[in-house]
Specification:
Layout (H helix, E strand, L loop, with lengths): L3 H11 L5 H16 L5 H13 L3 H8 L32 E7 L2 E4 L4 E2 L2 E7 L2 E5 L4 E2 L3 E9 L2 E7 L3 E4 L2 E3 L2 E4 L12 E9 L2 E7 L9
Parallel strand pairs: 1-4, 2-5, 3-6, 4-7, 5-8, 7-12, 8-13, 9-12, 10-12, 11-13
Length: 215
């Protein structure tokens, strides 16, 4: 038998106004879930937008109802969690994809790392850098999907890599610092695509760092 009093109390709790800390805690849990691969970046964007617009606990609760409790991280200012493939310490082993998430914070893919087939970067009120100058390419083609919403994503590409940029800027910028004249030939090909909305995605062509990666 359903306890009418407890149901009413639960309903009253869900109608209570959520605080900024409540919204940040929900957002932090969503970022961690995306870093663990439980939700996609598209789902993350949709849920974050709903979280920051939520006024009551009842609007926040459904956003994490399908996520395990252990994904929670206390505190509004905890850094966004990302997969181990996005935390470059030394040289990483090859992965099918890597993800860098910067939500009101920063993320950096760089150093000596093996570039996977797919890289996804999300910057929402934050900044993300994908540095390929010391990277090793084991795939002929790498696809970087960059989404910048009121934030920025920078792709630092060495001059010996062929880059194709096909992203879209809406009230924002999606551009290259200069055109890359490297012919496809046997050079790795990096396709940069995605969306910049009130933000920017910039591809810069730079010289490789002096310390080259050993084969």
């Amino acid at each position: 038998m359903v306890d009418d009093d407890s149901t009413e109390r639960r309903g009253a709790e869900l109608e209570m106004r959520a605080s900024d800390t409540d919204r940040e805690r929900t957002a932090d849990r969503l970022r961690t879930a995306a870093g663990h691969g439980r939700i996609t970046l598209d789902e993350l964007e949709e849920r974050l937008e709903a979280a920051y617009a939520a006024k009551t606990y009842g609007e926040l609760a459904p956003l994490t109802s399908d996520l395990p409790v252990e994904d929670a991280r206390p505190g509004p200012s905890s850094p966004a969690a990302v997969p181990s493939s996005a935390l470059v310490v030394g040289e990483q082993q090859p992965h099918d994809r890597a993800t860098a998430v910067a939500i009101m914070s920063g993320s950096n893919l760089g150093g000596r790392w093996v570039v996977p087939r797919r890289v996804r970067a999300l910057a929402f009120w934050g900044g993300s850098v994908i540095d390929l100058r010391e990277a090793r390419f084991e795939n002929r083609v790498t696809v970087i999907t960059a989404v910048a919403i009121m934030g920025g994503v920078q792709v630092l590409a060495p001059e010996d890599v062929h880059v194709r940029v096909t992203g879209v800027g809406i009230m924002g910028g999606f551009a290259e610092s200069r055109s890359n004249e490297v012919g496809p030939g046997s050079a790795p090909v990096v396709q940069v695509r995605g969306l910049a909305f009130w933000g920017g995605v910039l591809v810069k062509h730079l010289k490789r760092k002096q310390k080259e990666i050993e084969p």
